[in-house]
Amino acid sequence: MKLYTRTGDKGQTALIGGRVPKDHPRVEAYGTIDELNAFTGQALAVIEPLPELAEMAARLKVIMNELFDCGSDLSYDDEHQPEYKLTEEYAIRLEQWIDDYQQQAPEIRQFILPGGSAAAAALHVCRTVCRRAERAVVALTGRHTVNTEAVTYLNRLSDFYFAAARAANAKLGIPDVSYIPGLRADGLSR
User: Fold this and answer.
1) Which tens digit of pLDDT belongs to each residue from 165-184?
2) What percent of the chain is predicted at pLDDT more than 70?
3) Which residues form the Cobalamin adenosyltransferase-like domain (predicted)?
4) Residue 160: domain span
5) Is residue 40 a contact partner of residue 66, using CB atoms and an 8 Å limit?
6) Using CA atoms, how far apart are residues 166 and 160, in angstroms rounded to an integer?
7) CATH number of 60's domain
């Protein structure tokens, strides 16, 4: 099987059930999910070699498969009513993982900036891309038939990435990066 088909050379792509322009909101939504999955894979590549974060690596592998399910759910045209893969159980499990990570990190007393460890920085990138994916899916829901569990899942998933980033820093003994209002280039506050 060849990787290229030439069927998209004129700016169209296939959905399950039809073809649409490549800038269609549905393609934007599941394309951003695909981008998020790639960034999650990058975070996994940073996290997997760290024995302290073995459980987190296993959870990221589950999430990568769930993101594929999410993209699949978004790839149906409006005429098809599939049996969606994402269910409320996906978000409920994420809530359990978030609670677990919150217990592993210090209490939040100020705004947190992305960073600390390389693992946390990678997870913060995932968090921001997840928020963009969520916005794309919300925009899609206003005009097209969508599995509404996708919005819930992505909303919870961005919280998961934040909690995981903080837990990664805590487990690695690296402090979170705190927001310092008015920080100047010379390192002093105004």
Assistant:
1) 999 999 999 999 999 888 87
2) 84
3) 3-167
4) 22-76+85-178
5) no
6) 10
7) 1.20.1200.10
Dump pLDDT digits (tens) for 86-145: 999 999 999 999 999 999 999 988 899 999 999 999 999 999 999 999 999 999 998 888
Q: What does the alpha-carbon distance between residue 46 and residue 182 come to, in Å, rounded to a whole number?
A: 32
**Does the residue 49 lie in any domain?**
yes
pLDDT reading at 7 higher than 80: no
Helix axes 118-141, 149-172, angle to 10 degrees: 170
Chain centroid to CA 36: how far? 5
- Say how far apart CA 131 and CA 152 lie, in whole Å: 12
What is the domain count for the chain?
1
Q: Quick check: is 99 in a domain?
A: yes
158 neighbors 125 (Cβ within 8 angstroms): no
CB proximity list for 158: less than 8 A, separation 6 or greater? 127, 130, 131, 134
